[in-house]
Amino acid sequence: MLPLPVDVRTLAGSFTLTGGTTIGADPACAGVARWLGEALSRPTGLPLPTTADPTIRLAVDPALHHEGYHLRVRPDRITITGGSPAGVFYGAQTLRQLLPPAIFRRAPVVSGPWTVPGVEISDRPRFGWRGCMLDVARHFMPVAGVLRLIDLLAVHKLNVLHLHLTDDQGWRVQIRRYPRLTKVGGWRHESMVGSRQHERFNGRPHGGYYSRDDIREIVAYAAERFVTVVPEIDLPGHTQAAIAAYPELGNNPDEPVRVSTRWGVSRRVLNVSDETVSFFRHVLDEVMELFPSRHIGIGGDECDKDEWRASPAARDRMRELGLRDADELQSWFVAQFQRHLSANGRTLFGWDEILEGDLPPGATVAAWRGPALAVAAARAGHDVVACWDSAAYLDYRQSDDPAEPVPVGTVLTVADVRAFDPEPAALPADLRHRVLGAQCNIWTEHADHPRAVDYLAFPRLSAFAEAVWSPAGQPPWQGFDQRLGEHLRRLDALGVEYRPPGGPQPWQRRPDAPGWPRTRTDRAAELAGLTRNVLPPADGTV
Ligand code: ACM
């Protein structure tokens, strides 16, 4: 099984799904019973009707951890009891993994037998935030691909899908009040091929966006699978697509701006006028209408502040607010949205650059530039989602083989991801509760198609799922390699085009798209430069 449950005991005998098998549930988890009935019926061809005295029984027992469950398989009966419907759902996912891999197909390919070994499992997650970020701005993922990813997250007991909806290269969510955000910002003339350093372009337009109904469908589909969709509107940097749509948002409104066709961070950022703050409050109002998530992302990463330093209006703003520098201006800007979200009962979620300046406590920080940022965030009174690049950036190369498709970043193997510990060793015990959990991040500059996303995500996402669900442990993590080998058969049945353990298939290579591999030393030097305005210099204590 993967992720490995907390406690597994073998029982005598086994249960076999047959024409006589029935499903029944407490009213509280009737939706899970419907989902399980369909998940088991399609590949087995069995009717699995619901009855009052079923052979597969689902129930809620609030005495259990709310996402925990207890699963017992005896020859005459299977019972799944969860602390909430979510816990029941995770028990049902474990039950699927106890069946042959063909149970993950959507129509029958074998006639059985559908035998589940006798077992008693008690399980609960290590962390409450078990997430995956998908960048749909650099390359758009059509709705069908997002729904499929949600199913795959659910198979792995992950419960957060963070959608990076806007960036320099595209704006991907319909906002009724500002239609040009998608009309103009939703597509670009062409894209780079490979890393930006090579200056190669493909001459091919790229675009797409989610309508309000698309978002409603994604959110509802995710909710049925106990996945919360956390939206991100990236501000005040990474906004060139928005500025292309509404030049008055930028610092030089007379300068023509197009949606960026280049990877990397644009130097164009939002201006800090009242009108721009008000524009994005309206945007966030529509975002909150669509996304019930408590957390609403405002990005905040990699804001190049040169335009502000050069802008008389931004300098006036700093003077008028008594701010010392552009970092404080960024935190003032972010705080406008923190207040707005909080007035609406939501929590601001941002990358760790929101620690620059002096943001009031109470945000949730995605610590991407290393564990020291997680410690800094917790010390500043914020919650933390661990996702440092060295452990959780699934766009980074999977081996040092130059044949990896578009090899960028440092090497991040399946074993490296399995070894990810979201609780930094240097985090004081009294701040541990600040770590809500972790997420893996799938940036898509170099993944222009769902097949390429599969290659980046799997099977590292499976290893990540175990790092955030299962109790902390040490290699070999109770036979992780063997369990992963078995899990690949499930991914095969699910139609996932993962990276094979031996390296890319010939058609997964990208000889047309050169990368830009980094060593750990290169990356450490880059990050030391980037984080010096948050972390004390050469601070070896965090
Ligand atoms: C990031 O990688 N810019 C969050």
List keywords for this structure.
32% helix, six-stranded mixed sheet, 20 strands, binds acetamide, alpha/beta, eight-stranded parallel β-barrel, 17 helices, TIM Barrel, Chitobiase, domain 2, single chain, 2 domains, 542 residues
| CATH level 1 class label of the largest domain | Alpha Beta
- Total tally of structural domains: 2
User: What best-fitting shape do the alpha-carbon axes yield?
Assistant: globular
Average pLDDT metric? 97
Discrete helix count: 17
Fold-level CATH name of the largest domain: TIM Barrel
Computed structural class: alpha/beta
Unreliable stretches (pLDDT < 50, length at least 5) are: none
**How many beta-strand segments?**
20
Measured as a percent range, the helix fraction is 25-40%
Strand order of the largest sheet: 7-8-13-14-15-16-17-19
Strand proportion, as a percent range, falls in: 15-25%
Gyration radius (Cα, Å) is 24 Å
Taking the alpha carbons of the first and last residues, their distance comes to 35 Å
Could you say which small molecules are bound to this protein? acetamide
Which CATH architecture of the largest domain is right? Alpha-Beta Barrel
What does the largest sheet look like?
8 strands, parallel, barrel
Give the name of the CATH superfamily of the largest domain.
Answer: Glycosidases
In brief:
By secondary structure, this protein is α/β, with parallel strands linked by helices. 32% of the residues lie in helices and 18% in strands.
